[in-house]
Amino acid sequence: MKTVILCGGLGTRLSEETQIKPKPMVEIGGRPILWHLLRVYGTQGFKEFVLALGYKGEVIRDYFLHYYARSRDGVVDLSSGVTQFEEARGEDWRVHLMDTGERTMTGGRLKRLEHKLRPHGTFMMTYGDAVARIDIARLLEFHRSHGGLATVTAVRPTARFGALGFDGDRVVEFKEKPQTSEGWINGGFFVFEPGIFDYIEGDETVLEEQPLERLAADGQLFAHRLHDYWQCMDTVRDRNVLNDLWEHGRAPWKTW
């Protein structure tokens, strides 16, 4: 089963990094967040990926085109140009590098991949800037159980600030950065049936607007609630939080 990763956005809220690279290539512990995301899927047996490239897509292309060489010790014979690499077990992933346009919206990127996805039935999709501790097989099982066209993973992220509970002016509860209680949000980690393409018009379609709204209105969108760890990387602060967790051996999404 193929997994689509949307990798084409501008990442303007992380401009300190994204002026020179696309957001999925911003690093956590010396590896792009995209690599971490592929590991989340790959270690659970889902190893074929379709990367929807856009802004600075050449950076992602170069990373994977040279992935084999970068991950192994080797010898270069400068007189002949022959390169030999030591045997090492690599990632058994199959990665499709697909240009979906510099300014294409999220729905449009998916629509451009219809020819590669529709013939093969059910597929998964997520964003290239968030990691989670998620059981992909359970997500897929849930999707198949309801018979709808689409499943979205719903998450309740940690609040950015401490929360206070009051009785008049007296503080009766203090929680430092608790899980938000305002409700569930879109956490990515979708599962789709090919019928999703009938809800997308073209490049200007934002997936999270009319397509998902129409799917919900038609009773075709279901939510898989994730009660475990999820974290996006929208800002420098988010990047620092993720790096700190990785460096101290406390990264919840690292299940390998």
Helix content: 25-40%
- Beginning-to-end CA distance, first to last residue: 21 Å
Count of the domains? 1
Using only C-alpha atoms, the radius of gyration works out to: 20 Å
Task: Write the H/E string, N to C.
Answer: EHEEHEHHEEEHHEEHEEEEEHEEH
The CATH homologous superfamily corresponds to Spore Coat Polysaccharide Biosynthesis Protein SpsA, Chain A
List unreliable stretches of 5+ residues: none
- Please state the average pLDDT score: 89
The major sheet is characterized as: 8 strands, mixed
Classify the fold: give the CATH topology.
Answer: Spore Coat Polysaccharide Biosynthesis Protein SpsA, Chain A
Strand fraction equals 25-35%
Shape: globular
Count the E strands. 16
How would you describe this protein?
It is a single chain. This protein is an alpha/beta fold and 256 residues long. The chain has one domain (2-247): Spore Coat Polysaccharide Biosynthesis Protein SpsA, Chain A, CATH 3.90.550.10. Helix content is 27%, strand content 26%.
Q: Which features would summarize this protein structure in a list?
A:
27% helix; eight-stranded mixed sheet; two-stranded antiparallel sheet; Spore Coat Polysaccharide Biosynthesis Protein SpsA, Chain A; alpha/beta; 26% strand; 256 residues
Topology:
Blueprint: E1 2-7, H1 15-18, E2 27-28, E3 31-32, H2 33-42, E4 48-53, H3 57-65, H4 67-70, E5 74-76, E6 83-85, E7 94-99, H5 106-112, H6 114-117, E8 123-127, E9 130-132, H7 136-146, E10 150-155, E11 163-167, E12 170-175, E13 185-186, E14 190-192, H8 210-217, E15 221-225, E16 230-232, H9 236-247
Parallel strand pairs: 1-4, 1-8, 4-7, 10-15
Antiparallel strand pairs: 2-3, 5-6, 8-14, 9-16, 10-13, 10-14, 11-12
